[in-house]
Amino acid sequence: MAELSTIARPYAEALFESVRDDARGLEYWSGVMSLLAQVSGMPDVLEAMADPRLSDAQRTGLLTGLVPQELPAQAANLVALVVENGRVQALPQVAEQFELLRNQLEGTALARITSAYPLDDAQVAALLQGLERKFGLKLKSQVTVDPELIGGVRVAVGDHVLDTSVQARLAALRDTLAA
Q1: DSSP E strands: which ranges in 36-124?
Q2: How far apart are CA 98 and CA 174, in angstroms?
Q3: d(Cα 124, Cα 118) in Å, to the nearest integer?
Q4: Helix axes 91-106, 4-19, angle to 10 degrees
Q5: Long-range CB contacts (within 8 A, 24+) of 17-21
Q6: d(CA 99, CA 106)
Q7: Gap between the Cα atoms of 116 and 165, Å rounded
Q8: Beta strand 138-145 with 160-163: parallel, antiparallel or unpaired?
């Protein structure tokens, strides 16, 4: 089976083109896609979508009914299309691809910051300021805490990873000593 990102890309591109000039804005659509990704990523929902006793219309109604807000026509059409094509499991990737397209249009990117300890807003802002200079992009942050890093941070911006964690330094030291 093809990778989900490969399957998701045409759906995301089609949705993006249809809502690009929507008066509600791309931030609204990112929220809609985030909701769809959360609902469609639930194991119980995926199990229900695979039930052969349900028709496509029932699957579509079930999935759209689980979203806590009224879906716009374009989103409802997307849900019906992925249900019809048996691609519900790709909806989280569609949302991710949609966000990448939005970031590309806005000249921004997502900085996934993983820290050994919780960071306050001032620390995140200072880190983002330095990263924005380095990458030449306006960055949005997503901060998570991973105590296994021991200390420092790991930042992923697109395909670029900057790892200044103690864990990475210890691994590099181990590799140097083993060589």
Answers
A1: 108-115
A2: 40
A3: 10
A4: 50
A5: 18/74, 19/74, 20/105
A6: 10
A7: 8
A8: unpaired
DSSP 99-167: HHHHHHHHTEEEEEEEESS---HHHHHHHHHHHHHHHTSEEEEEEEE-GGG-SSEEEEETTEEEE--HH
Q: What is the pTM of this model?
A: 0.77
- pLDDT for 113-138, tens place per residue? 999 999 999 999 999 999 999 988 89
Residues 6+ apart with CB under 8 A from 154: 113, 114, 115, 146, 161, 162, 163, 164, 165, 168
Q: Are 154 and 161 in contact (CB under 8 A)?
A: yes
Domains and CATH numbers, the chain: 4-103 (1.10.520.20), 107-178 (3.40.30)
